[in-house]
Predict the 3D structure of the following.
Amino acid sequence: MMRLPKFRYIAPRTIRDAVRARADAAERGAFVAGGTDLYPNMKRRQTTPGVVVGLARIPALARLRRIDGGLAIGAGVTLTDVAENARVRRDYPALARAVLEISTPPLRNVGTLGGNALLDTRCNYYDQSLEWRRAIDFCMKKDGSICWVAPGSPRCLAVQSADSVPVLIALRARAALVAADGARELPLEELYRNDGIHYLAKRPEELLTEIRLPAPEGWRASYRKLRRRGAFDFPVLSVGAAVRLEGGLVTDARLVLGGVASAPIRLAVAEDALRGRVLDRTAIADAAAAAAGPARPMDNTDFSFLWRKQMTRVWVERALTDLAGAA
């Protein structure tokens, strides 16, 4: 049985108290909301914070509110509440569908949208018990110096595999961050780095407080996920797709891949292939073909990485076909 290491738990009631507690803990601290990612990582000794700042008792993190025709979702709102929220289902149905693809109902009842957005990168050589990792020698991501996915790589190739992220980026979401020394907001896609170890462009002491979605304004989105099992499985390839239609033509498009790199990948060439065109079979095929190039999956998750690359074209085509059908 894997057991949690010893740590001190703090349960503040306000965002201000939470960020102060985290700042006081310095490098020994960590935030936790649902704990569905942090606590397993602690049991595997992938991280061993001495101070854990719990966020479950902060009402401001667990609310949904309207902003300029859009929606701000507190980082502490559970995945179940996101998926079942009437406004999310009406205005951002692709987000609701993506969230329902995460894990199982009991874990969605505990896990939060903010926690999923900040999910640790994953790898076959990293997400193992301490004894397993010690037996093969530790990897670059924790305690070692070699990336076992590609031993010649100068950086860790653990993969970003959060279901909510590709569709949130496709929906033009923004992230609100707060620390003891101030607050800032940035596009969600700028929150991620293509580095399996330093995968977030935020300081550890910064708290993600909200994910802010703009008004739909003609945008439609879809989400497609490739995985071995029909439930309770991480994506080995995912696609978040969104298009804005006016007069039957695509005036703008956003296509995002997940599960193939340490950060989500924007498919700019594929997006360009759609703009100014009717969303028909020809345009979809052209965009799907353009999407296959940037996808360079590594041998760090389930299935053959070569097959996963081939499936990029197929999954992008299916995601866009969903949008064509909705239109």
